[in-house]
What does this fold into?
Amino acid sequence: MNDRLSRYPRSAGLDEADVQLRLMQAGDEPGVAAFAAELPTHDLLFLRRDITVPKVLSAWIEELQAGTITSLVAMQGDEVVGCTAVVVDPRSWSPHVGELRVLLARSMREKGLGRVLIQESFALALSLGLEKLTAQMTADQQAAIAVFEGMGFRAEALLRDHVRDRQNVKHDIVILSHDVADFQAKLEQYGLNDAF
It folds into this structure.
């Protein structure tokens, strides 16, 4: 097993809440479905597919088993309060690029869990040998954009009217990216490659 994967389950290290992080698995499907159903629809717009649809969630689980998605779930007791996905397409022209997706329960916002999940996913991306990470969100999600930018992601594109919500309203999508390979090279240059 990959060394970075073997470090789970582990505590998220939050002061205000006892949250455990672990790799997502097939048995998590009902908990993730309940978690997704509680999220505001607007929080789901950056995803390529609506994970509140059972067959979409089942396809996610299949991709976990196929190895094209690596996901973490954040658990508070038996409840899913956050999840991530690092998505790669090894058959595309961009097998060196991963897409990072992070979702948080409303009750866990502004407690540092989002930052922890991004950091953990970044470490997973390094372990997968990815060279670049992208993240996308609607342009009005300023708090999420600020967290990503604070961690070294930079705006790369704005896609106008790119998604349509359930009320048929269009929203812009912002794409942020991070050069993971450059970050890894800097870690190695300073002898810190085991820090992540």
Notes: Strands lie at 10-11, 20-23, 69-70, 72-76, 79-87, 97-104, 132-138, 154-164, 170-179.
